[in-house]
């Protein structure tokens, strides 16, 4: 039976802009659209603008004095669904998104007594925005990394919008969300909600 217990989500906005930037972030906009879709499934959560934090380079869960990654890591541990949102720069996920993935490398050596990594039983969704092609490449790189550190990937869990090549229109500039993007967002939210409920009801068995 699918769990009816309340589920929570945490989103990491990996825009290069800090939250005090005058310009609104396209990544924030698509994350907001995802949360609107999740609300229809009774799922609430919060967004963290990662550029606001001092995330030190490294591959451990705590890199020492001044490192603010541990507080973001705790939000991952507490959530059922983790959303990673990133813009595309030079065809790549943002450097901030890559920093998040590097820090989660520590999960590989942090298994519990059942052999589970900290992300075991947690569902991942990835949102990508940009003015050029590259969304599928970003999804491939990020989902591979998230799978490696223990997250479970639902069907159709990647959502994206890219403008025309060499254009200057951002997602945040759109007056209306394109129908196919809205459909993809709704599908991702529905599938992630279903999978998270299933995993909450029946956790992965111990590794033998």
Task: Give a short synopsis of this structure.
The protein has 208 residues and is an alpha/beta fold. The chain has helices spanning 26-39, 69-78, 95-104, 135-148, 179-201; strands at residues 8-13, 44-49, 81-89, 92-93, 123-130, 158-162. The protein contains five helices and six strands.
Description:
- There is one protein chain.
- This protein is of the alpha/beta class and 208 residues long.
- The protein has five helices and six strands; from the N terminus they run E-H-E-H-E-E-H-E-H-E-H.
- The chain has helices at 26-39, 69-78, 95-104, 135-148, 179-201; strands spanning 8-13, 44-49, 81-89, 92-93, 123-130, 158-162.
- Strands 1, 2, 3, 4, 5 and 6 form a six-stranded mixed beta sheet that branches.
- Helix 1 (26-39) packs across helix 5 (179-201).
- The longest helix is centred in the C-terminal third of the chain and has 23 residues, at 179-201.
- The radius of gyration is 17 Å and the shape is globular.
- InterPro entries: Flavoprotein-like_sf, FMN_Rdtase-like_dom.
- Pfam families: FMN_red.
- This is NAD(P)H-dependent oxidoreductase.
- Residues 11-164 form the NADPH-dependent FMN reductase-like domain.
């Amino acid at each position: 039976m699918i769990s009816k217990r309340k589920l929570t989500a945490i989103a990491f906005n990996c825009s290069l802009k800090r939250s005090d930037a005058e310009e609104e972030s396209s990544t924030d906009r698509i994350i907001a659209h995802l949360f609107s879709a999740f609300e229809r499934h009774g799922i609430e959560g919060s967004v963290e603008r990662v550029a606001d934090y001092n995330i030190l380079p490294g591959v451990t869960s705590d890199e020492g004095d001044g490192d603010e990654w541990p507080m973001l890591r705790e939000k991952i541990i507490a959530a059922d669904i983790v959303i990673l949102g990133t813009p595309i720069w030079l065809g790549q996920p943002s450097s901030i998104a890559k920093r998040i993935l590097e820090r989660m490398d520590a999960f590989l050596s942090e298994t519990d007594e059942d052999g589970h990594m900290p992300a075991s039983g947690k569902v991942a969704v990835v949102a990508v925005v940009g003015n050029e092609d590259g969304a599928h490449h970003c999804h491939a790189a990020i989902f591979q990394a998230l799978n490696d550190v223990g997250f479970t990937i639902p069907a159709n869990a990647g959502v994206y919008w890219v403008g025309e090549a060499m254009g200057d229109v951002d997602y945040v500039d759109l007056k209306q969300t394109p129908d196919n993007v809205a459909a993809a967002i709704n599908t991702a939210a529905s599938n992630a909600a279903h999978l998270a409920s299933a995993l909450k009801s029946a956790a992965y068995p111990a590794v033998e």
